[in-house]
## 1
Amino acid sequence: MNPRTTTKRRVAVLAVVSAACGASVWAAAHRTSPDPAEQPVANAPGASPTHARWIVAGGGPTPESNEVSIEDDLRLAASVLPGPGVTLYASGAKSKAVRVQADDLPSDPLIAELGAIFSPRPGRSSRYQSTRIAADGPASPTALLDAVDAASSAPGKPLTVYIAGHGDVGTSPADNAIVMWANFTVTPIDLAKAVETSKRRTRFVITTCFSGGFAELAFVGADEKAGAAPGDVCGLFASTWDREAGGCDPDPDRGQHDGYGVHFLSALDGKKRDGTALAATTLDIDGDGVVSLLDAHTFARLSSRSIDVPTTTSERWLRHSTTAQVIATPLMLAHEDAVIGVLGPRYGGPTEPEAVAELKRLDDEIVAAGGVEAEASKAETEIYWDASAALLARWPVLDDPWHPLWREAVDTNRTEIAAFLASAPELASLSAAIASTNVAAMKTSSLEVRRAALDRVVRAFETKRLAAALSAQGGPAWDRYVALRACENSAP
């Protein structure tokens, strides 16, 4: 298969935040020719894409955004999904770019402090290690799309496609993207094309930021104006199309990971995130005797204390197609009832009016906290320019470690620079400003986590009401909703 003309590469400097799997970008350009990493994936030993029961793919677009938690999730996915499969990871099986937090790295304190002032970045407190994944190929768009096309087009048992990593938001849900190794991207439109000839049930599980944009797979060509997509294709996603997701963490302690992916996959493995075994009756939320993908999705909604607001293709279809008046009696939906019953009382929303009111209150509090954070950040920026100017007035090349005279400037003036950093009022003010910004940011983040849990409750109430209305409306739109829900609620 030829490389797809829709494949894009993000030409960007990535803003990497460990807590959220988002990749902020400045521009995008069409990729006109493939590089070696974009060639079709080599078949896995004993499992070609046409015989695969699962495809596991992901990784960060750069080493700094290729956190160990992503690798851990992909390894767990490959171990809990049944049958032969294909694994695509970052730059491939020989990748040495897995980022792991390491606070004990040897460093020059003076240079570390200068770096923190002039060019802070999270990767400096990390080491990079070789991947533990025996990948069948790189996580490039062509490798992924070719594998999905080949696997979904072959009749057989249901196919699960699990994708973990970073995402980017577009101007509309269909413009969202998974940002893969070397900043190449895959959009909902790309995946819709890859499954347009699907001959078997195909379920996507995508854990990136803004992954809800891939709920557009419910429509032909990921275009809601084109009507329902043919075939038996559905998806479960870590967050809505316009929200970031948690889960990208360089911490080597698996017990600290708390995103959608670790809870979803642990549930399929019959366990809590910490490895504690769970009874099947606890995980089988609808009591049908099977722990399904939707059961695991709901368990993640109940368990994850992150900013995730998970969603599905059936929710997207429901909100698109319901035209009848919302009736007073909500439909009984076991998975939504579980979210309401567990999270509602915990977060102050046991009834829908209470949940909506509390969500509005939290939104107001977040706006206020965001204002405080913005003011702190603005003050920090202004103080930064004073501090950097004071340093550069004395040692003009300190902000450019690539300058030929940088090393000489540091080594020759080390004592004077260290004394200035310790005593200059501009530097003391900068340190205090950074601390204030961090405190404000932590306040906003804690409110966002609480809001996410409550948002899950509000959406569950809404889903129940809209499902009741669509049921009363009946017809092909209701039948399509039932089919999507059945696809999502199928066993791995």
Note: The first helix runs from residue 68 to 80.
## 2
Amino acid sequence: MIEVDRKSVSEPAEFTRRAVSATKTLRLHVVRGETFRKQNQLPLNEELLAAPDLLDALQGLFRGCCAFCETPLLDSEKKFAAHFRPRQRASQLGGKVDPLHYWWLTYAWSNLYSICSSCQSIRGTRFPVRGKRAALGSNTGIKSERALLLDPCAEDPEAVLLFTDDGLVASTSERGSTTIDVFGLNRASLVQARRDHCRRVDHIGDQFLDRNQPEQWDEQKFIAAVMGE
């Protein structure tokens, strides 16, 4: 997981225009009361969440990779948008479910991400928070919510995640450890891929040193030269 500047890609205009109406539809459903909601499913517009301009924007923003594990997405995984805060039935680590969180962010550009099927399957609808969730329908309340998952579009995950040369990722912080667990960032396939990559970089570095005079390089110049190789 690496930091991503969401402002580097423009919010998809046509998707955003259509999202206004789609969000109103959700709001009308919610305000009709609990009895109505139990008898009728939340009217989610799956077609809108697969809008071409939205998917193109997400692919550009996350470089065609999963926002959470950085695995290149399969073609099938590029055909839908995922949510940082789930669109409904957000659950705590202990299993407590909040049925209506976070329906109002279903079509919010700031809440939409690219995700691989593995991260999505492992994560489910878990979105743990410390303390209370934001009030239903509140965008301002989101800012004060104490989320336990790292948001790559709002902070630098590498400040709290430690990637080692044996392919593992660890953290000494609660949020870092929770993120690793919820997205399964130490699953076998990711650990092996990171380990293989470290070995390739080490091999290139060894070859580079064989052809050059190591005492002529400081650390940063050496790393830049190896990455160039």
Note: Helices lie at 13-31, 34-39, 52-61, 117-123, 140-144, 174-182, 188-211, 219-228.
## 3
Amino acid sequence: TSVSFDLSVFEIFAPLSVGGTVVLAPDNVLDVIEHPERYRDVTLVNTVPSAARELLAADAVPPLARTINLAGEPLSPELVRALYAHPVVDVVNNLYGPSEDTTYSTHAVTDPAHDRTPIGVPVDGTSAYVLDASLRPVPLGVVGELYLSGAGITRGYHARPGLTAERYLPDPFGGGRMYRTGDLVRWRTDGMLDYLGRADDQVKIRGHRIELGEIDTVLRAHPDVADAVVVAHQHPSGTAQLVAHVVPAADEVDHTTLTEHLRAVLPAHFVPAAYVTLPELPLLPNGKIDRASLPAPAQESRRTGRPPRTDTERFVADVWREVLGVTDIGADDDFFDLGGHSLLATRVISRLSAHTNVDLPLRLVFDHPTVAELAAQLPDRSPAAAPTTIPRVSRVLGRVSDA
């Protein structure tokens, strides 16, 4: 994670306080995949689950990594089991905590036999309460909202007294203040907490906190949109992606136009990777949107220009089709416009490197993001050729920020 993020306090000072060494990765997981030799002595990895998944896919987990700490996103049992299958990994820790309770609030040593990965028990100096709407503790196994109190509670939101008063409440159980997380949890019989989702429209994707309601509001402001709702769907690749379900104001709505509209006012990680056009949004009997009935995006053609013409262009398009779940890709289509991001780019480079027998730098996808541009950078395929390395290109600051 970035050194400007609150997690870096733990990542830097916890190892140093016990005589350890901190290795700074210039591009997070990207540098670890490109230059594994720099991390061969690493024994502890601290990252988000989506990045750990890409380390596994690229066979880039440091060979001496005995401990894996994961935080920032829900941790699936499948990923836990895959990490424990690594020959050296001894412990996979699941860490939970909002920035408002710096830095971590709960901790669990995971068990590959668990069907659901708990977020564990409060760390020292932290108290956790599972409360109902009247701020009363709920019984064991009953879902409630998680409130935190203790030494880590921050002072509030800068220049936002109203929001601070809404989220930071008097602690009726231990004195002081407690923070309302908005996360739904329940106590398990083993004394640990299960995370069950959000009480509001907030999600986390690749470690970024995203308020879905903000995207809905911007989409509905477009004249071609009668109604819209954005949800997080599980992509076939195993990563979460934002999907916008849109009801057109007229006969149809152009998805490219909506993307440009969103990019003009929202951060890049708020822009949906896919769109689904619906005649109307499904509703529950109480009139609320039935989010469970919203369809996942089907594989769709997103081609905007000429089709791939050369064998290399066709192969690159095939790789993108597999990684992105898009059925028809043009030679001039942009990887990131099709829903790609830095973690999926690692899968593209892995497949292209295996195909060309050449050690390709990940940066190629960022500097040459269209099928035609990327294909032009690839050497002639020669399975018998000795592996070579394309010179590392200059650092790109823009599109790698979502890693």
Note: The two ends are 8 Å apart (CA to CA).
